[in-house]
Amino acid sequence: MRHKKEDDGSRPDGEAVHLRREIGLVPAVSFVIGTVVGSGIFIAPKGVLMNSGSVGLSLVVWTLCGVLSLFGALCYAELGTTFTKSGGHYTYLLETLGPLPAFLRLWAEFLFIRPAVASYVSLAFGRYVVEAFFAPCEAPTSLIRLVSLLGVTFVVAVNCWSVTMASRTQVTLTFIKTFALVLIIVPGLMALAKGKTENFQNGFELEALTLDRLPLAFYNGLYAYGGWFYLNMVTEEVINPNRTIPLAIMCSMLTVTVLYVLVNVSYYTVMTPGELLMSEAVAVTFANRALQGVSTVIPLLVALSCLGTLNGGFFSSPRMLFVGAREGQWPQLFSMIHIRRHTPLPAILFLYPLVVLMLITEEIQPLINLASFARWFFIALATLGMLVHRYRFPQLPRPFKVPLVIAVTFTAVCFFIVGLSLYSDPWNTGRSCALTLTGVPLYYATVHRSRLPPRWRRAFNYCNKKLQILLEVAQQEVKTY
């Protein structure tokens, strides 16, 4: 990645204000792996096992989630090379299904998806940091939340300061978290090679499987694989996106799937299913059993892994708000970038209070289910939109084209999982659905045809202007798509 002048905070005379193309292949691969591999592999095994009912079926779920995520990533590779704007889900819904679904995705992202995702990742970060000092005693909840808040604040500060610093942080944390997974895999496979296979005997106890809980097993698994779509949110900052995006996505997801399955095999080799379900921090329990000499290092490595996922989310998600504002569907302030740092400062900063609020009030497991329903529903809509767009405009150039069977399979499975989740966890999925639908009247009142009183509009424009001066931000001066 090239070093840029904005790192020192200076702005040479005549330098245009815009987001730079700074993400090459290696940073792109690091970005995807670094965002996918995070708290999920250390939190989700418990949820997958609990809802699948057996060791064997949980491994099948982990494998299928990897394949399904790869299918989705390939669909997004086609979308990312067909539509060259940043914004990911939002841009694809806007271009294929129209402005209302796109606005609802934007609204859900700002209101609860990004705050929920950032909150449960930061809570995992805080838990692993604090429990390293309190083990074997239970860590104070208030201290966990405080450390989680510090982690979020650090990531927000880095992403506000410099794109280059944020991406270099991501590359570094990706290497650290890959090392953490290898450190878990090696002793487990060594024990398996020595014949420690008792936990895999009678691995498929299908009587414990219930159809209503199976979608929650997939939700937990897909949550751990979540993040393959984040590169599409920064398309305008990727060098040679037609080549980089498909290549980075395929390399990353194949690597992550292999690592995840091997990590779970390692978990089950060392721990019984009952021990895994009882553990609040699976990686710590594993380390105390299999890595006694370096067991104190594992929580730190896991915490840094969570920090990498948090950084990737705050790097990419504000770009969706940035593009939405640029398209006129979100307050204009969000489409501005810092005149010297060249970061989308308002979009990053205004996510922070909602993350803090959710961090203080919610627990990890409900947050996963709350965010997952809306996230996967809109992903299914985006790939459905891709199929509709392909049918309507068959001659449109598509530098990368995913096989039709993969796109149809992924879309159908997503809708199936989303539909069943309404039955499996009606409270959290219903809450997610209701919060999303609150955007419908907001869209017709403010975006479709503004019905705000003139006094409100003047007050809003006044606040927008004052915040622009305070934050030192301006509109892009160069078209980047």
Assembly type: single chain
Largest sheet: 2 strands, antiparallel
Helix content: over 70%
Please indicate the percent range of residues in DSSP E strands (runs of 2 or more).
under 5%
How many helical elements? Answer: 19
Radius of gyration: 22 Å
Low-pLDDT stretches: 1-14
Average pLDDT reading? 83
What is the overall shape?
A: globular
Q: Could you tell me the number of beta strands?
A: 2
Task: Give the strand order, joined by hyphens, for the main sheet.
Answer: 1-2
Protein model, in words:
The protein has 481 residues and is mostly helical. 71% of the residues lie in helices and 1% in strands. The chain has helices at residues 25-36, 40-52, 55-82, 89-96, 99-134, 141-161, 163-193, 214-225, 241-270, 273-278, 282-290, 297-326, 345-349, 352-361, 364-392, 404-424, 426-437, 439-448, 454-471, and strands at residues 336-338, 473-475. Helix 2 crosses helix 3, helix 4 packs antiparallel against helix 5 (99-134) and helix 6 runs antiparallel to helix 14 (352-361). The longest helix has 36 residues, at 99-134. The two termini are 20 Å apart. Mean pLDDT is 83; it is low at 1-14.
